[in-house]
Amino acid sequence: MAKKKKLQAVCPVEHGWKTIKPAGITEPGSAEELKTGDWRSQRPIHNMEKCIHCLQCFIFCPDCAIKTTEDGKFKEFDYYHCKGCGICAEICPVKAIDIADESESLEKEKKENKQNAKK
Ligand code: SF4
Ligand code: SF4
To answer: How far apart are the C-alpha atoms of 85 and 63, rounded to whole Å?
Structure first.
């Protein structure tokens, strides 16, 4: 009769799971440190010409990922924290925010950076 192989748990981390860095918010007030922008598959794109600076997007953004100017106008997205949920685009009364595919946007950005570097 063939011998049964002993099953062994395989852990890829040298000192076990307890040494793995937590990937969530574990300390109060630590959300800002987490690069939630890495989770994004879609990104918001702002159109300044259409924007009426009502700041509805700022109020509704669940990640506080919309930066404003000192005089209370839309400034830019904080792509470090923006998860690409699309709420800002939905809420914008003048459709000044489009949602684009993240990988296509990154490709476009790379091309633009290359072209700017050549100038
Ligand atoms: S909701 Fe739209 S119009 Fe209002 S500030 Fe945001 S982008 Fe501009
Ligand atoms: S896509 Fe979502 S997380 Fe990103 S700025 Fe808009 S509302 Fe905030």
So the answer is: 10
